[in-house]
Structures are given as structure tokens and as C-alpha cells.
């Protein structure tokens, strides 16, 4: 620039002052969260510049940490602020994933020709514990007869029905009644079929060559847990019952009947037999009084009482002695 004075013209040259800038790097996964600065981010700033921004998390992600030059940031009224330092400045946004809450289906059974639900509740899935409130506007000629949720009657409060989603397949049923004369109201839906009971197999180990079993009720391949089974055993001739086991535990008969109860595991019935010893021939009776002697004074083979034979022998000897004395 040129200047004038009473001494003449002279010029002064002034250079613009250049302030140093420092880099600014942002590390953020845009698929997990969005950073919104109050002014567009720059790649470099003068030291001392304050940069402000907000953060919106996307989906099931959560913020683990926000660091600026290694230090954790804290938002004030939802706004984060960093001050550019005389270094390479780095902003890091860290996220972590969370498992989504499980959802459970809701099936709505409603005839729109007879009434409408407001607000609309359609077949969808919800988290357990979700509360749904609604009213029902009926078509002319119809009235609400019954509202069932998972089979339980729901009563209105202030004209609204309220249900809470349970951790199962939820069913909402609206039943209407026709207000015309002579028309029977709709029947509630049929009760669901009871669940099929779990059956457990029974194994029987028995050698029919040694004995047969007679069950109180016809045998089945499988039974419900807790079923009581009674039976008797008829051993074959020459055999007796040695042991009766159910799942390794000995059964004790009562009046000739064995009883056990089906359980959820095992169910093995085992019958063991033993061979009986043959009985000896009965001895000859010693009470017979018949006796005879041989011609020579001995006992015949037909004498069955040996003591009689002895008595006869002694008697014969005494008689012989008397005879000799007489001579």
C-alpha cells in the first residue's frame, strides 16, 4: 500500500498472518450410528477450535465409548464438544451389538363384516409383556358377545379391551352375536385338543419254558408315567420263582400278586426261576404188625417190623430152653 506525507510518498508491505492447523480424523461406523455436526466436519482446524456434534444410534447397536484423543467424552444435553489440540486429533466412536428381544406371534380372529378393531391390531409378532389396548365398533345388527385372549375371557374397561402378550403363540378371538330375533348367538371356538401324553416302553425278560406271566390288564408296548401294573407268575412243574426285579429293585408279592409303577426311564421287568430238587420215595411204614418165621426158626422176608422179628427169635429161644429142661 502507498502512503503520502509532507516528506513525500513511501510504501509499506504487510504479509497476512498464517495460523497453523491440525488434522482432525473421525472414526465412526455409519451403519451403526450417525454423527451430525453443528457445522460440517473439516479435515483440519486451528488449535483451540471447538467442534460440536450429536450422535444417533441405529438399530440394535449401543454406544460403548466416544473418545477424543484417547479420552472419553460425555454429552451435555445430547451434544458432544471437542477442542482441537496442537496434535493429530482423532475422534473414535465405539459400538457394541445387543441381542434383540424374542418376539411371539399374535393371531387375530375377527369378522370385519360384523365389527372392526380400533386401533387396528393385525397378525404380527410382539415382545413378551407388550400391552395392547383396543376398542371394537360393531356393524349394525351385531354386538360383541365375547372377547377371548389365549382362551380367557377379556372384559372391557371404559369401552376398551386390554391384553398383554405372553411368551407363547397368542390368539385373540372376537365373537359376535346377531341382534335379530330367532338367531342363535355364535358358539365360542372349540377347546383345543389336549396334548398327546408321553409314553414309555416296558421290557419284560421271562423264559416261558420255566413259567408264564398273567397281567391284570392286557399288555402294551408303552405306558404313561405313573401307570400301575399288576401280574401273577405261574412256574412250570419242577421250577420255582427265584427272584423278581423291576429296574434292578426286588419286587415282593402280596397274596401272590406283584405290582410296579411305570417311570420315565428304564422299565425293565426280570423274572428268574430256580430248578426244584426232586422229592425222595416215602419210606415203608414201620407200624405193620405182621410177622412170620421160617421153618428153621428164622425171620421170613415178609416181616416188615424188625423189632417183631427180634421178639419172635427170643421167644423161640426161651421155648427151646424149656423143652430141654423137661428132657
Task: Write up what this structure looks like.
It is a single chain. The longest helix has 21 residues. With 327 residues, the protein is mainly beta. The chain has one helix and 27 strands. The strands form eight sheets. A five-stranded mixed beta sheet has the order 5-3-10-7-8, with no helix packed on it. A five-stranded mixed beta sheet has the order 13-11-18-15-16, with no helix packed on it. Strands 20-27-24-25 form a four-stranded mixed beta sheet, with no helix packed on it.
Order of helices and strands: EEEEEEEEEEEEEEEEEEEEEEEEEEEH
Instruction: Describe the strand arrangement of the main beta sheet, using strand numbers.
Output: 5-3-10-7-8
Could you name the ranges where pLDDT drops below 50 across 5 or more consecutive residues? 285-327
Structural class: mainly beta
Radius of gyration: 55 Å
Mean pLDDT, all residues: 82
Overall shape: elongated
List the total number of helices: 1
- What is the beta-strand fraction? 35-45%
Q: Indicate the percent of residues in helices.
A: under 10%
- Taking the alpha carbons of the first and last residues, their distance comes to 203 Å
Amino acid at each position: 500500500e502507498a502512503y503520502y506525507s509532507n516528506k513525500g510518498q513511501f510504501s509499506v508491505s504487510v504479509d497476512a498472518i498464517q495460523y497453523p492447523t491440525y488434522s482432525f480424523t473421525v472414526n465412526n461406523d455409519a451403519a451403526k450410528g450417525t454423527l451430525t455436526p453443528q457445522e460440517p466436519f473439516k479435515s483440519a482446524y486451528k488449535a483451540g477450535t471447538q467442534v460440536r456434534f450429536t450422535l444417533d444410534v441405529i438399530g440394535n447397536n449401543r454406544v460403548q465409548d466416544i473418545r477424543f484423543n484417547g479420552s472419553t467424552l460425555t454429552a451435555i444435553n445430547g451434544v458432544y464438544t471437542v477442542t482441537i489440540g496442537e496434535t493429530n486429533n482423532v475422534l473414535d466412536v465405539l459400538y457394541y451389538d445387543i441381542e434383540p428381544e424374542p418376539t411371539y406371534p399374535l393371531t387375530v380372529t375377527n369378522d370385519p363384516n360384523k365389527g372392526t378393531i380400533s386401533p387396528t391390531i393385525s397378525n404380527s409378532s410382539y415382545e413378551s409383556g407388550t400391552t395392547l389396548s383396543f376398542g371394537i365398533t360393531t356393524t349394525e345388527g351385531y354386538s360383541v358377545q365375547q372377547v377371548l385372549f389365549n382362551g380367557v375371557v377379556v372384559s372391557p374397561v371404559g369401552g376398551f379391551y386390554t391384553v398383554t402378550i405372553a411368551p407363547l403363540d397368542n390368539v385373540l378371538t372376537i365373537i359376535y352375536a346377531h341382534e335379530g330375533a330367532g338367531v342363535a348367538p355364535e358358539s365360542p371356538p372349540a377347546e383345543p385338543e389336549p396334548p398327546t401324553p408321553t409314553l414309555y416302553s416296558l421290557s419284560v425278560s421271562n423264559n416261558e419254558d420255566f413259567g408264564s406271566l398273567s397281567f391284570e390288564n392286557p399288555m402294551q408296548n408303552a405306558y404313561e408315567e405313573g401307570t400301575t401294573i399288576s401280574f401273577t407268575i405261574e412256574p412250570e412243574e419242577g421250577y420255582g420263582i427265584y427272584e423278581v426285579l423291576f429296574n434292578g429293585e426286588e419286587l415282593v408279592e402280596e397274596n401272590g400278586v406283584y405290582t410296579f409303577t411305570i417311570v420315565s426311564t428304564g422299565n425293565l421287568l426280570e423274572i428268574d426261576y430256580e430248578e426244584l430238587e426232586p422229592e425222595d420215595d416215602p419210606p415203608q411204614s414201620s407200624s405193620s404188625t405182621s410177622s412170620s418165621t421160617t421153618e428153621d426158626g428164622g425171620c421170613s422176608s415178609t416181616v416188615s417190623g424188625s423189632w417183631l422179628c427180634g421178639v419172635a427169635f427170643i421167644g423161640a429161644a426161651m421155648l427151646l430152653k424149656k423143652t430141654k429142661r423137661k428132657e
